[in-house]
Amino acid sequence: MEPDMTDLHDINAKSARGNRPPERLTTHLDLTEKSAALIQQRTGRIDAAHTVIPDFWTIARLACLFHDCGKINCEFQRQLAEKGYFWAERHEALSLGYLHLIPDATHRAWAAVGIATHHRALTGENARKTTLATLYQGTDLTEWRDRFEPLPNTAAEQLAHWLHETATRRGLPTTAPTAGHSYTTAAHTEFTDFLATWRRRTSPATGLAAVLLQGAVTYADHLASAHGTLNTAQPMNADFARTIKEAFPLKPHQERAAKTPNHLILRARTGSGKTEASWLWCCQQAALLQAEGRGTPRVFYTLPYLASINAMTTRTTERLGREGLVGPDHSRAGDYWLQQFCCPDDDETTRVQAARDATHRKAATKLFKETIRITTPYQLLRAALVGAAYSSRLIDVANSVFVFDELHAYDTKRLGYILAMMQTLEELGGRIAVLSATMPDALTTLITETLTGDVTCDDDSDSTQQPRHRIETRNHHITDPAALTEITHHLRAGESVLVIANNVAHAQQIYDNLTAALPDHHGTLLHSRYKRGHRGTIEKAITGRYGTDQTRNNTRMGGFVVATQVVEVSLDVDFDVLFTACADLEALAQRFGRINRIRAREAAPVIIHTPRYKQRRGQPGLYCDGIYPHDPVSEAWTILNENAGKEIDENEITHWLNRIYNTAWGQMWRQEVLHHRDDFRRAFLTFKRPFDSRDQLEERFDEMFDGLEAVMEEDLKKYKEALHQDVDANGKPRISGQLLASEYLIPLPHWGATKAAYDTDLKAHVIRGVYSDIDGLKEIHNPGGATGYQLDQLT
Fold this sequence. Notes:
- By secondary structure, this protein is of the alpha/beta class.
- It has four domains: 8-225, Hypothetical protein af1432 (Orthogonal Bundle); 238-459, Rossmann fold (3-Layer(aba) Sandwich), CATH 3.40.50.300; 469-648, P-loop containing nucleotide triphosphate hydrolases (Rossmann fold, 3-Layer(aba) Sandwich), CATH 3.40.50; 707-793, no CATH class.
- The strands form five sheets. Strands 5-6-4-7-8-3-9 form a seven-stranded parallel β-sheet, sandwiched between helices. Strands 12-13-11-14-15-10-19 form a seven-stranded mixed β-sheet, with helices on both faces.
- A hairpin with a 3-residue loop joins strand 17 (619-624) and strand 18 (628-629).
- Helix 1 (25-43) crosses helix 11 and helix 17 (348-366) crosses helix 32.
- The longest helix is centred in the N-terminal third of the chain and has 22 residues, at 204-225.
- It starts with 11 loop residues before the first strand and ends in a 14-residue tail after the last strand.
């Protein structure tokens, strides 16, 4: 039955969902404008927007107030009320018909941008959803009216009066409506003008301002639709800085960081208080931005690995002393919250409630609730996708503070993309710090060349610390029997031993050999190809036995862990001795950091084994163990042999890195990074066609950063049961059910999709192969039955 549309109170914006009743159109418009005002308060003046659109926030709030007016259409109301009915038109195009209430022509034209683009791309090939240009380009007025009428006349007039009255109360400029106005005709005129303007290329400055306006409207719309809230205070403030200074005497580099007025590059050794220095710098930058009228700056601390992000989230929360201030922002943040809210022994009811709570916390972060977020650079890069889904990220990152930790972990393409994004973050008023225990001058130079503002480069060379490590080299491979003999010698002496291989196959081989040789010794295997649930259990067990707290409490135990490079920066552990395959020097420096981590002992041995090179599938050249390019590994091996027997610290490693990056390989590395930086900026961060679809870029991002996850065929029954532990009224799994089922998922490279089937009912990739809780994934079988998974090219 069609709803009674004689009165505005009968017009809805959203249908009933679960226990939530339908939401009136005026309620949603009101909430969206209020959300925009809250976002304005938190974000402040954005120079990149206000230079082009002086009344940026006034226009954004007007656009939010008007953005869904087109939902008044009778057919749209029928769609809300009648299950299964679908209206084929776009309500945002019809919403433009109310813009005549905005008296200023410039305001009106910019408001049209925010309204028209808050759901669909305007143009672009291969868009997942039909673009606005495809739908309406060339549509004459007669056809337009056929497609968008009828409107409920009384309610349409009431809406115009409500808009004017509400805008007036909020201090937004509108004129009183006049009788007899044709909203569909006005919408056609506004859309025709909008399409003519934005189908053409525009200047980079105008394009950036346009997507910022789009972002302001979509941000407010999403926040209002979720009835969400935003934190409006920055806890990294003068009080927080004071607690750090009172906790321990500051070192010189920490004192300087606390006073630095601009961008910062800080090289500081592990254990020197690098993180605390970055927090002090964040407090300073947030205060400076607030003093300039830049709202409440957000703080983004980026790291390359999810486990280290989770650990930093916990550490930052504990230091602040209050829950709800810090949000982990990555693809598996729900897992982090689930681990916080439940224990392995909890019953099903408790776990379901914990999953719901975890889902809500992740959703709040997705709406940018917290003013401190621990994240990956990938999440920041997603802002380059813009459009209705991601342009809100540009608003969220404006006038914010960014810490990039461990940039060395990225290949030339990803590093180039990150540098390009740094340029845009700076353009949006951001302050940037880059941290590392070891950073070559080549990378420092790239960063200072990329940023236009002043950059302070500092280190901790004026702080004295005893060396943590003693370099030793071996002329046999890590898988050689001689290595096994030496490892077992240290284990029989009661030491804790970390063994790091470069790929999964070697790690599994070494682990099997050690457990066969020493069946009574405590051993653990860790790599990236475990089910999520198993990996979390393994990491917790490793930290519980070999963590730095055990060193501080003098409760350290012997035993061994065999791992791939997933252990490099993800776990806060402290071993007696390291046996590692050779790799590039940055990776080795991270591996060294797991040994004698808090300098509780004299310099500990880090034993590096000779590299072995092989070809890599589909790529030219040779790679150490199929993972690391030949030239930087070969140069690192030469340097390590020259320094065998010496005690060293990270500052010396920086000098070694400079030597490597001054080679022909280093020059090629620089050119590749610059190429990717400039190419990415030209293609995606100049916004000359701001409303083109970027769906294809999103797919490229997923391939580069996310990979995919799959469930073993043998686990399908358990996976389905976990999914259905929490379902909606229609029996469809909720997001919390998906979170509970995720413990069965195994991460794979993006090309792993060719080895998997896709279950359309479960919406999951499914693989057949060999898996055990101890070894993890050992084989994937191709659809024909043959083994198709190469362990020696995976970490």
